[in-house]
Design brief:
This protein is an alpha/beta fold and 552 residues long. The protein has 28 helices and nine strands. The strands form three sheets. Strands 4-3-7-9-8 form a five-stranded mixed beta sheet. The protein has a two-stranded antiparallel sheet with strand order 1-2. Strand 8 and strand 9 form a beta hairpin.
Amino acid sequence: MKTKEPIWIGLGVLLTLCYLLPLFWLGEQAHVRIHDNLDSNVVWYKNLVDSDSVYAGLQDTVPNLVGGVVSRNAFVSEWTGIIWLYQWFSPFTAYVVSQTLTRIFAFIGLYLLLRDHLKLQLPRAVIMFVAVLFAWTPVWPSGMLSTLGMPLLLWAYLNLWQKQRIGLSLLTLALVPFYSSFVLGIVFFLALLVLFGLYKEWRQKSFHALFWTAFGAQVLLYLLIEYRLVYSMLWESEVTSRDQFDIGHNGFWRTIRLFFKQFVLGHTHAEAAQTPVLLSLILGVLIIAIYLKDPTARWLKQGLTLLAGLSLWYACWFYTGWQPLKERIHVMQTFNFARFHFIEPMLWYILFALALDWLWRRARQRLVTIMILLQTVVLLIWNPEVIYQKQPSFSEFYAVQQFSRIQSYIGKPIDTYQVVSLGLHPAIAQYNGFRTLDGYVNFYPLTYKQQFRTIIEGELNKSSELKHYFDDWGNRVYIYSAELGKNYDYTKTNQQPVHHLDINVRQLKKMGGSYLLSAVPVQNASSIGLQLMKSFRDDQSAWIIYLYRVAP
């Protein structure tokens, strides 16, 4: 079997890369996720590189977005590997390379974990296919190895616990922090790991010094890599938008509904695509195994209980009953402790492997094949090229040629004026080098939020949804319109004119705004102090851009 190991791993890598074929084949015409991806992370990395801010100081801000007031510490540090890719390659190439690395190590991690630590009787081919399917899961693209790298980390930690493969495991634990996010996934994995380790030590009345030494060293390494975040949380004195977060507003029944939604469908940042195949199979095998008093029932029951517990914790974090405690403990308001859901994809595919192993031992090999094929179909449907095919492609979204024409038409140095956007993400203007008063960031000065709110106050007063969205969260510092709602995809095939835009143009001008880039016509523009200069169309763009100048 060992002689065939490189064959199975090599074949698994090739099958993993098949998931990325649309990116390789279509190039910038490929469709990828926009939400929390093209509208934010991709542009953040590009902007850091273009503005020479990658190595900026702890007190420095980043130009070109949100009025240039956002701290450099709001973004990943220069020790995070994904920023290196954007320094070496064009944004799209960097995105593809990042996806390739992430998916390959996702496959390798789960393959090694299932092979070495689960004592499965499944053939290597089946283990390989399960790991490939895990690598195909539609998790958040900008998370790097934060979610998809957890099996690799768990494999390394279990090796150290058992004092096996020590050198390779230590190397793995040392390298993964450079390509993952501590706060967006890994910290929650490590929290569960330490609870598991302490429980095992107590039960076994033992102490695994190597395991705990490596654990402490990795936590310290993460804190060093994320030194900007550590500084902003512990020593940054400026009050930021996070200090106004109020996301715990769900009542009892809404919390229960969120629990079932999370358990059945997962979170948008960590989707395992467990419905319908994985969930149905695991539940079915569990019921039969309990009836037959099979030992597999214990592992499936514990796994599903843990998944249900993580889903319940996620739902309860937004329960209104937490509010008094969040008001007293500042970190509970500014940090999202609900994000244990990042662990769920790994757990679902471990349970999938256990269920398939039970079927295989019961001589149900054909059913094993059918389950794998069905989940393959589910994940092919979840491929970004399929689920985002009605959205703009990478190149259509950023519309480089169109925005180049807009810049040429304005005819002034691009760093001498600032713009805002309506009906489309400000990230598009930022990608094309424009300086924007608006944007989407993790946090920024609260004083800027209050100033910007004056611009959009009239629209917020028209919509309780928008008012709550901005006042109680506000990371999207956008020019809102109650007529458009929380939609920013008004392409040339989806036009909805704004009849009565109520924004404070004087405040917009006072803050340095010179132009409004709108994806839809504003019919009352002249009455509020906006002058239509020209509309721009481009066959390679998803948008019609109406350029409005802020009147003198």
